[in-house]
Design a protein that fits this description.
InterPro entries: 6-hairpin_glycosidase_sf, 6hp_glycosidase-like_sf, Glyco_hydro_88, PolySaccharide_Degr_Enz. With 388 residues, the chain is mainly α. The chain is built from 15 helices and six strands.
Length: 388
């Protein structure tokens, strides 16, 4: 009996070691000969192929930075959450949608249909009811697909609109979570604003558009570092004081996505187009100011000593690519895009996955020091590669 117990304990210890070792080995092995891509088209093809593979088999993004005894986090349900996966899958859809504008790919079409069938009922409703506003960017990613999505999945989009409405606080803007009702997070800008603008235009709902504009204007007023146009992680609606790190890289990315995609979705005739364009102009100056010589942005953009972050680089590169459509920003933004793209090529593994993205944020002021692959970065790299 003691022999069997000893063997069981040894097998358990071995299993725990293997579970811990697999991610470490995967990163080590994947980084052999990293950055081998020299031609942009070759790089674009490689990252797109990986994005297609990941759409229905999205790598799990863990909540913690813990790399030892991670089985404990798994058993406690602290290893990952669906909300994190929403914005991973959303970015892949956005990137692959951009690719489809100029390319035909039957395998991709099949993978997209497979994804839609797995997540939505034939009626156009969600199979699993969304509970957090993170789903807004996923809905936006779906709406960008060239398959008459507004008609096919209007019930699902209506549900996202109702969910967002249920998070509107006393100040008239949207909270990140109901139990954090006194704070407005920069993440929320990216999660909801592009969806609200597109939904409002498609379904003639001006209330939607006005909410997105208010969310952006309020953040500009209270969430920015005065004189620098540099967003903080959040701000408190009662006192208007920024909270968390000012200059958090992916926070700039969330603001960039929400602002630039909202601006692009608005027709020229809408009064808010000029308002958002002026915000794009000011934020472009900030973004270019903090781009490193290597072409990247760091995870803390205003600290040159901090580590570079591919998720920040991909999202801010996308922002600049669209901001360059404004004539007087064309030259400076296009140069920023070139440098960002070249950097992302250098940190792409030989299998086509873009490496060195900061992991999931834990709380205000508590940031991940784990840097690896991130489907969110992959999607925005694909998006960028198809416009630059």
């Amino acid at each position: 009996m003691l022999v069997w117990i000893s063997m069981a304990i040894l097998l358990l210890i071995l299993a725990i070691i293997i579970i811990d070792a697999i991610p470490i080995f995967r990163d080590w092995f994947g980084r052999i000969r990293i950055g081998r891509f020299k031609q942009k088209q070759e790089w674009s093809n490689a990252i797109t192929e990986t994005g297609i593979k990941w759409l229905n088999h999205t790598p799990t993004i863990k909540l913690t930075d813990q790399s030892r005894l991670i089985i404990i986090d798994m058993l406690r349900g602290n290893y990952t959450r669906k909300a994190i996966q929403h914005w991973q899958e959303a970015a892949l859809l956005l990137g692959l949608s951009e690719y489809l504008k100029a390319n035909s790919n039957e395998m991709l079409i099949k993978e997209i249909e497979k994804y839609l069938q797995a997540h939505f009922k034939p009626s156009g409703n969600w199979k699993v009811q969304p509970k957090v506003i993170d789903v807004g960017i996923l809905a936006y990613g779906m709406m960008k697909l060239p398959f008459n999505m507004e008609k096919r999945y209007k019930p699902a989009f209506d549900e996202v609109w109702r969910l967002i409405q249920s998070h509107i606080g006393e100040d008239g803007t949207v909270a990140y979570r109901k139990h954090m009702g006194d704070y407005r997070y920069v993440d929320t800008i990216g999660f909801i604003c592009p969806f609200l603008i597109r939904y409002g235009i498609q379904f003639d709902n001006e209330e939607c558009i006005m909410l997105a504009v208010k969310q952006l204007e309020s953040y500009e007023k209270y969430g920015m570092l005065t004189n620098y146009y540099l967003p903080g992680h959040a701000y408190h609606i009662k006192n208007g004081v920024p909270a968390g790190l000012v200059g958090w890289g992916r926070g700039l990315g969330w603001y960039a996505i929400g602002l630039i995609d909202s601006w692009m979705e608005l027709p020229e005739s809408h009064y808010a187009k000029a308002i958002l364009q002026e915000m794009v102009r000011k934020f472009s100056i900030t973004v270019l100011r903090y781009q490193q010589a290597s072409g990247c942005w760091n995870w803390s953009v205003n600290r040159s000593e901090s580590r570079s972050d591919s998720s920040t680089t991909a999202t801010l590169g996308w922002f600049l690519s669209q901001a360059s459509l404004i004539p007087d920003l064309k030259d400076s933004c296009s140069e920023g895009v070139r440098k960002a793209s070249e950097y992302l090529m250098k940190v792409t593994r030989r299998d086509g996955s873009v490496d060195f993205s900061q992991g999931d944020t834990k709380d205000l002021g508590v940031y991940s020091m784990h840097f690896s692959i991130l489907p969110f970065t992959q999607g925005f790299s694909i998006r960028l590669a198809n416009v630059c």
